[in-house]
Specification:
Layout: H1 3-12, E1 32-33, E2 44-49, E3 59-61, E4 64-68, E5 73-78, E6 84-89, E7 99-101, E8 104-108, E9 113-118, E10 124-129, E11 137-139, E12 150-152, E13 163-165, E14 168-172, E15 177-182, E16 188-193, E17 203-205, E18 208-212, E19 217-222, E20 228-233, E21 251-253, E22 256-260, E23 265-270, E24 276-281, E25 292-294, E26 297-301, E27 307-312, E28 318-323, E29 334-336, E30 339-343, E31 348-353, E32 358-364, H2 366-371, H3 393-404, E33 414-416, E34 419-423, E35 428-432
Parallel strand pairs: 1-29
Antiparallel strand pairs: 2-35, 3-4, 4-5, 5-6, 7-8, 8-9, 9-10, 11-12, 13-14, 14-15, 15-16, 17-18, 18-19, 19-20, 21-22, 22-23, 23-24, 25-26, 26-27, 27-28, 29-30, 30-31, 31-32, 33-34, 34-35
Length: 433
């Protein structure tokens, strides 16, 4: 597809929240919403408490919000009040963000099944069993001991969130495959095997599925056949497996695919050829969240360094917009009008005015208010020493959960009208306005 046609498609797919929606708002994962937004914070419109952590991102269609929790449930909530309309129970964590199309809600669970449920009442329409879910695993992971032990990565927190296009639903799996199913029946159309776990979410544009794998490759696949069009190789880390793997989901804008990587680079790739147009090195800090695009700018955040950047889409020239004082940002930014919203692992949601590049308000989760002081140093940076007792693998797992007790916002915000919706590891789904 020509560049101008992709631009038109991008504009047409900006989410209006009619009958269809999905992670990052549309098939290209733009993260841009046609909404008034919240230029001034008034408070909590409502909050809904689940019995687990809310890592998945909300999906809003009409007057209903759909969101998963690690309590094994997918919830359908009234968008105005937060009241439960229905809930659907799986046998595993729901860390996949739902896609809604043609009256069906699609999502994955850690029980190894991919589900399609009726959007109106939550009744199961069909389910598809993959080869099973598991997290990315490696020896000496992040420098943890024992060196020879294979360890699942506690930072591999998301499941692949589906994209629905042209009668098919596409998603990745921990079994290493990318799947295409018939959206109406769940019948497998094709599957494409990568070399490792696929927990990134696919983007779709011009008959192509774009997705990354923990095997360090980023793929462009023919959406009709599943045949590989091209692949792009990212960095490797054979010692600690810290600086490798594609956990972030791509965004397609104006003929270019933008994607972050745990090799600490943020890449701009030609959507037709996979040729690298530019790359930005974050000097050791991962890019886990997806980017957002608007008006020739690409917005992306980093993990350990806790920085939000604006990139010139064509040249890659960067401007640092915000620092979260080294609190990681796993969540993806959302844009509505001139406002950008992004959550941090500190349990804070930040709102920035893009016109003057200034932060205008901050919202703190319940978890942040309750436990933030315990895990925050006097200078506002994370107090990892209070959470991590040592370099044994078990200490890493315990430490990660301790840090998440501050109500981390790993859920990407969704903006509808004058409300921002997001989840938190304190178990709440929030609606703030």
């Amino acid at each position: 597809m020509k560049t101008h046609k992709l631009a038109v498609l991008f504009l047409l797919c900006l989410p209006l929240f009619g009958e269809d929606s999905m992670f990052r708002g549309d098939a290209q994962r733009s993260g841009a919403y046609r909404a008034a937004g919240v230029p001034q914070l008034h408070g909590v419109k409502w909050k809904f408490r689940t019995r687990g952590q809310v890592i998945s991102s909300p999906t809003v269609v009409g007057d209903t919000l759909y969101v998963g929790s690690t309590d094994h449930m997918l919830y359908a909530l009234d968008r105005d009040s937060g009241a439960v309309r229905w809930k659907f129970k799986t046998e595993g964590r729901v860390a996949s963000s739902a896609a809604v199309a043609n009256g069906i809600t699609y999502f994955g669970s850690y029980d190894g099944n991919f589900y399609a449920v009726n959007t109106a009442d939550g009744k199961l329409k069909w389910k598809f069993q993959t080869g099973g879910e598991h997290r990315f695993a490696a020896k000496h992971l992040h420098g943890s001991l024992p060196v020879a032990e294979t360890m699942p990565d506690p930072f591999d927190v998301y499941l692949s969130s589906p994209v629905v296009a042209d009668g098919s639903v596409y998603f990745g799996s921990g079994d290493g495959n990318v799947y295409a199913l018939d959206a109406a029946t769940g019948t497998q159309k094709w599957r494409f095997a990568t070399g490792d776990v696929v927990h990134a979410s696919p983007a779709f544009a011009d008959g192509t599925v774009f997705i990354g794998s923990w095997d360090t490759n980023f793929y462009a696949l023919n959406a009709a056949s599943g045949k590989e069009k091209w692949r792009f190789k990212t960095g490797e880390d054979h010692d600690m497996h810290n600086q490798e793997g594609l956990q972030a989901s791509p965004i397609v804008s104006d003929g270019v695919v933008y994607v972050g990587c745990r090799d600490s680079n943020f890449y701009a790739l030609d959507a037709n050829t996979g040729q690298k147009k530019w790359a930005f090195n974050n000097k050791g800090s991962w890019v886990v969240g997806s980017a957002a695009a608007q008006d020739g700018k690409i917005y992306a955040a980093t993990s350990d360094s806790g920085l939000l950047y604006a990139f010139d889409a064509k040249s890659g020239a960067s401007t640092e917009l915000m620092s979260s004082k080294k609190w990681p940002m796993f969540a993806s930014p959302a844009i509505a009008g001139n406002m950008l919203y992004i959550g941090s692992n500190e349990g804070k949601l930040f709102a920035l005015d893009l016109a003057n590049q200034k932060q205008v308000w901050v919202f703190s989760t319940e978890g942040s208010q309750k436990n933030g002081a315990t895990y925050t140093k006097a200078d506002g940076t994370p107090n990892y020493e209070a959470a991590f007792a040592g370099d044994f693998y078990d200490d890493m797992v315990t430490g990660v959960q301790s840090m998440l007790s501050v109500g981390a916002i790993m859920s990407s915000p969704v903006v509808v009208d004058n409300v921002v919706y997001f989840g938190s590891t304190d178990g709440n789904v929030y609606a703030v306005n």
